[in-house]
Amino acid sequence: MKFRFKNRQEAGIELAKKLKDYIDEKTIILALPRGGVSVASSIAKALNIDFNIYISKKIPHPDNEEFAIGAMGEFGEIIIDPFFSSLITNEAIKETKNKIESYIKQYRKKPIENLDSKTVILVDDGIATGLSMEAAIKDIQKLHPKKIIVAAPVIAEDTFEKLNKIVPVIALIVSSDPFFSVGMYYEDFHQLSDQEVEEIISDEQ
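Structure tokens predicted for Phosphoribosyl transferase domain-containing protein (205 residues):
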């Protein structure tokens, strides 16, 4: 298989080319850690716009930590896969909220600015089920931005169709292939360490 992207930085540079026409003086990028931070950093540098983080975390299946059955945004929005709604417990929601608060404390170096009437670009390194991104969209909508745009190097086709009904979605690849993992499309898709994420954010801010 030929990888589409060398790494997240390269993907961000390519994605910036598609985003340049959506940028104005009131645009801000919000990256979803961890992988989205690297992509967003490349976009922010290429387009010379502000960059911050936004935390949206999946609510995992009780028997499989990697399988999302819901998601929560940092301002409290919760998205639940209706097929698994009976498995969402108050304890799972509480644990997810605690994880979000921990990430904010660890990663955020400055408050998110007032998003009223701003163009907000939500960035991740790839989108599979879209639950975390959907929670992010609906969470950010509460802050009355002028526009929300979702940007990712690769997204599953059915997820693209779902999210694109809510907000514009900009992607380099809309994949109709069986979507086993976002990493299928990257040569280097190592999990970013906390130190790497903090260094990227510090460089930007």
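The first helix runs from residue 8 to 19.
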